Amino acid sequence: MSITNKLNNRKQYRLNTAKTLTRAKGSVNSKPMAESNEPVNMRELLAPEVDWLRAECRKINSKHGDDLFQEVVMRAIKYQNSFNADEQNLQGWLYTIAKNQSKTIEAKIKKEAF
Q1: How many CB atoms lie within 10 A of CB 32?
Q2: CATH of domain 3-113
Q3: 40, 80 in Cβ contact below 8 A?
Q4: pTM for this model (two decimals)
Q5: Residue-wise pLDDT tens digits, 65-104
Q6: DSSP states of 12-42 as a string?
Q7: Collapsed DSSP state (helix, strand, coil) of residue 91
Q8: Separation of alpha carbons 28 and 8, rounded Å
Q9: What's the rounded Cα separation, in Å, for the pair 67 and 65?
Q10: How open is the CA angle 36-38-43, to the nearest 5 degrees?
Q11: From CA 105, how far away is CA 22, in angstroms rounded?
């Protein structure tokens, strides 16, 4: 299988997963998951993004990239109800968490240095 086919399959998987997870059991006019009775299953949404997220965390903070990755995943799961798949891009949401968490980590390191 060529690289292009693999990328297209991965994109299609993400789209199908996101659509499935954002709709409540086949209802066309269902509410976004954050507003419905069914919670967002962030672990299922995160699964295809793990490699991308780890790479982004290492780009953002090369020294503490793995720690940053763990913090982002924990926060994404903790605050999963604030994510609305109909209105937000998952990668954008995760990237914002990573940037903000990186600033927090750097501030803690500077504070500990003094």
Answers
A1: 16
A2: 1.10.1740
A3: yes
A4: 0.63
A5: 999 999 999 999 999 999 988 888 999 999 999 999 999 9
A6: HHHHHHHHHHHSSTT-TTPPPTTTSSSPP-H
A7: helix
A8: 26
A9: 5
A10: 125
A11: 32
